[in-house]
Design a protein that fits this description.
four-stranded mixed β-sheet, alpha/beta, single chain, 2 domains, TIM Barrel, Urease, subunit C, domain 1, binds fe (ii) ion
């Protein structure tokens, strides 16, 4: 009888070193030099990077793959995107949302993206998105961990029924409390919404993930309130601020006070570089602000930062591939994280850092962990960022869920020997 169900042989781990990984059932049973161990299925990963799966801490599954319906976002701004989403959600239905979300999840799995935190709009009296994504969460459970955030898109106070509907969504089983303080009518109502939503999370023992200060307004101050409420309610380590783009434009002195407050509250930050490089600075002439939050400065303060994807083909963003390496690639550029250590960290920011933000249990490549991993056609994490290569094999919860043949292009060039092998890897 075979020793393991699956043996992934000879892969290079993200932190360096070569190891075999033996899988029994849904667990990693052994990792190291497993020599001639037998297995029901052997996957040769010699020379390939073997990583724990990609994790996306910020997405909108209720809106994904809807691009162009009922129209496109002509101004390219966040605010027109919100208005357009309002038109779409009035005319869509649960079935269509389920189909679009499932199609995206298939795509994600093929990219080795096996855990997603998705916001779900609660400003809809029928809660169509909530119904749809609760159904999707169950359907994908055998191979993808979906965490849902109750997100009052049109404002917890600004929308007349948002507060009641957000509570209903949590009662129905949505996992995390969200918010959008910068979209409330006034700074005061924004502050009050952060307070009320954090109190709801504290009462229910839930995590918080708030869209926060997603503007170019240097005076937006909701992240300060989020840090304050986190400490007041004892929610340290359980709260994330998503986007935080106004920090890009804030006064440096104020930021020098704000960063330690965020660190004390153990807030996590989730910048979404593909979307915010597209949306921010739209009201600027030149110079145009990049609108990405202060990633390196946060990390220097010990604040956990994870890259999020946010959107794929929806009212806010026309492109996207479900590839967290694309997200990290853009983040690396916009945040100018070009040193070897910083590039390496960008890989962690779409794997281990994001897993910690989601509080994922049993994540990682170690004995006893959930047997979920990705074999990439790259030699190491930085090469993976450079190439954004094929995912040769994706294993989720002990099952092979996606495979792709290695792509070696063969060229026939005049004056060159026949059969030139062309790969981009630096091996
Ligand atoms: Fe978002």
């Amino acid at each position: 009888m075979a020793e393991f169900d699956i043996l992934v042989r000879g892969g290079t781990l993200p932190e360096g070193g070569v190891a075999d990984i033996g899988i029994t059932g849904d667990r990693i049973a052994a990792i190291g030099a497993l020599g001639a161990a037998s297995a029901g299925r052997v996957i040769d990963a010699t020379g390939d990077l073997v990583s724990p799966p990609f994790v996306d801490p910020h997405f909108h599954l209720d809106a994904t793959l809807s691009y162009g319906t009922p129209r496109i976002n002509a101004s390219g701004t966040l605010l027109e995107g919100i208005a357009l989403w309002g038109e779409l959600k009035a005319e869509t239905n649960v079935k269509a949302m389920v189909e679009r979300a499932l199609a995206y999840c298939d795509w994600a799995v093929s990219m080795g993206l096996l855990a997603i935190r998705s916001h779900v709009d609660t400003c809809d009296d029928e809660l169509k998105g909530v119904q749809a994504l609760l159904e999707v969460r169950e359907k994908v459970k055998p191979y993808l961990d979906l965490q849902l955030v109750a997100f009052p898109q049109d404002g917890f106070y600004r929308d007349p029924t948002a507060a009641a509907n957000t509570i209903r969504a949590l009662d129905m089983g949505v996992d995390v409390v969200g918010g959008i303080p910068h979209f409330e009518r006034t700074m005061e109502e924004g502050r009050a919404s952060v307070r009320a939503l954090c109190e709801i999370a504290a009462e229910r023992g839930l995590l918080v993930d708030m869209h926060c200060d997603e503007t170019d307004d240097p005076l937006s101050r909701h992240v300060e309130t989020l840090a304050y409420e986190t400490q007041r309610l004892g929610l340290q380590g359980r709260v994330a601020g998503s986007h935080l783009t106004s920090m890009h434009s804030m006064d440096n002195y104020y930021v020098s006070k704000l960063l330690p407050l965020m660190a004390e509250a153990e807030l996590a930050a989730i910048p979404n570089p593909l979307i915010n490089i597209m949306l921010q600075g739209r009201h600027d002439s030149y110079p145009k602000r990049r609108g990405l939050t202060r990633v390196k400065e946060m990390q220097a303060q010990g604040i956990r930062v994870g890259w999020g994807q946010d959107c794929v083909r929806d009212p806010w963003y026309p492109l996207g591939t479900a590839d967290m390496l694309d997200v990290a690639f853009m983040g690396l550029h916009v945040a100018q994280m070009s040193s070897p250590q910083e590039m390496r960290r960008c890989f962690d920011m779409v794997t281990t850092e994001n897993a910690a933000i989601l509080h994922l249990a049993d994540y990682g490549l170690h004995e006893g962990a959930m047997a979920s991993l990705v074999v990439l056609d790259a030699g190491d994490p930085v090469e993976a960022l450079r190439l954004r290569p094929d995912r040769l094999c994706v294993i989720s919860k002990g099952k092979v869920v996606s495979e792709k043949a290695r792509n070696d292009a063969r060229l026939s060039l005049p004056g060159r020997p026949d059969d030139v092998r062309r790969r981009h890897r630096a091996e």
